[in-house]
Amino acid sequence: MTELPAVGTRVSLRYRLPTDSDRPFTDVVGHIVDAGPVVRIHTRRGDVVDVAREDVVAVRAVPEMPVRTGEIRNLEHAAALGWPGTEHQWLDGWLLRHGQGVTRRANSAVPLRFSSFSEIAKVADWYAERGLPALVSAPDRLLRLPDGVPTDAENLVMATDIAVTGVTDAAVSASPDDRWLALYRRDVPVDVLTAVVDGVVGFGELAGAAVGRVAVTDAPDGTRWAGVSAVHVSEDARRQGLARRLCAGLLDWAHGRGATRAYVQVVVENTAARALYASMGFRVHHHSRYVRAQDLL
After folding, report:
1. Is 23 exposed, middle or buried (0-12, 13-18, 19+ CB in 10 A)?
2. Are 173 and 211 in contact (CB under 8 A)?
3. Where are the beta strands (DSSP E) in the chain?
4. Measured between alpha carbons, how far apart are the two ends of the chain, in Å?
């Protein structure tokens, strides 16, 4: 039996057609979303092709499609608006975010239109006035880091087109209630969780055991993005598909509010989350990491 690469890999796969077909084999290019008895390939057009494992004749990994810098900037813009902290301010081409010191994302500056390192001193002053060290979110190509600068918490930013699934058992509300907060189990203030700029936010719950958040915001190019975050499943309810169903419900809710594309930000070491989102059609768009402003000055 032909060995397959890991779920999430972009491949060119050749497989055997039924005996009454005009030709014996055909090929499909896309990402593996399931490598079980039925191999599922998610194509660039959004189709999913199912192939019986025993019909796979050959497979090879192929490079990912290149992502343009402008596409990174647009996604990061939408993502910054979707987790802006309780205070935010534009400074030149930077979005500065302050969220009571809770979470890196809500307390970091995003260089969406970086022009010179002199801007970083202004960023550092803004955070110093609020009693926080200045932390910079550094996405690929939006800020080139000097050699040797230490970084922290590298993230994969994964993206996909939204396909409506019809999941109806995930309840989504405009704010987290006490049960949602108890299931989430992280000490993040409600006003940080509910903050969004020029968009809407929803909080999903499923089966009394899984919770998650989705923020719907716009990018400068007009794309309406849905950012899934804060997903947590109770330990005694894991490996039952709840996270997948919850995320599908959140994306359906976001699609109903105009979102056409979705993203997640996953710490590189979180292999379980990476596999989950890959199985849902998310692909690596770019990387990001955090760096202290003082290390750049």
Report:
1. exposed
2. no
3. 10-16, 25-35, 38-43, 48-52, 56-61, 87-91, 94-98, 109-111, 135-139, 152-161, 171-173, 200-206, 210-218, 224-233, 261-267, 283-292
4. 56
Structure tokens at 25: 């084999």
pLDDT in tens, 85-132: 999 999 989 999 999 999 999 999 999 998 888 899 999 999 999 999
**Which pTM value belongs to this model?**
0.83
Q: Where are the domains of the chain?
A: 10-61, 69-154+289-295, 158-288
Residue type at 138?
A
Closest CA to 289 of 71, 139, 101: 139
Q: For 218-261, how does the pLDDT look when each residue is reduced to its tens digit (9 = 90+)?
A: 999 999 999 999 999 998 878 888 999 999 999 999 999 999 99
Structure tokens that stand for 26 in this block = 């055909």
CATH topology of domain 158-288: Aminopeptidase (3.40.630)
